[in-house]
């Protein structure tokens, strides 16, 4: 469960490809407006960062509609050009790791927030989580251990002040067509219904935990 003080200053740090992989493993289709509203209801939401890499030489990027929507609807987009190379099998491989950008932003935001919510299961973030905790910031990690294999590193889950299972948020952040409308088992951390509104699909398909994706994925 997530525990927030209504006076807390909150910031979200969303590792886009990692969250996509975790959601896909659970069959969860995220509505990002609903996700934002859940946390706006828990305190003072200072910033919601979304991190992803872009392939610059693509005539059309499938992620662009989502990026544009997020940028106009309360998210701070952090992007960079993905690196492209061809592997031994002749497949074009795209690498777009945003770990450094996320870690720097979390450290820089630490003096201005009370609670950081990290949407990632990447164990590489354990050290930055520890660093911001020493600055007095509580950290909640949102990912999933119910997928096969689990998507959250054990060391990151142990380091977090609170771990939230992504699947438990399904009722509140899923698209209308995927949401189970039976709300009898609403978790304690959500007391009010969130606004229902369609958002562009997250097209990070093919990205794995490292930020790698094959062009034909």
Report on this structure.
This protein is of the alpha/beta class. It has one domain (9-209): 5'-nuclease (Rossmann fold, 3-Layer(aba) Sandwich). It contains 7 helices and 9 strands, in the order βααβαβββαβαβαβαβ. It has helices spanning 16-26, 32-40, 64-72, 99-109, 126-134, 154-159, 170-173; strands spanning 9-15, 44-54, 76-81, 83-86, 92-95, 115-119, 138-143, 162-165, 212-214. The strands form 2 sheets. A 6-stranded parallel beta sheet has the order 3-2-1-6-7-8, with helices on both faces. A 3-stranded antiparallel beta sheet has the order 4-5-9, with no helix packed on it.
Portion of residues within helices = 25-40%
Can you count the helices?
Answer: 7
- The CATH topology is given as Rossmann fold
Order of secondary-structure elements: EHHEHEEEHEHEHEHE
Q: Regions with pLDDT < 50 over 5+ consecutive residues?
A: 178-198, 205-217
Helix-and-strand structural type = alpha/beta
How many E strands? 9
Rg over alpha carbons: 17 Å
Query: How many strands, which pairing sense, and closed or not: the largest β-sheet?
Result: 6 strands, parallel
Q: How do the strands of the widest beta sheet line up side by side?
A: 3-2-1-6-7-8
Global shape: globular
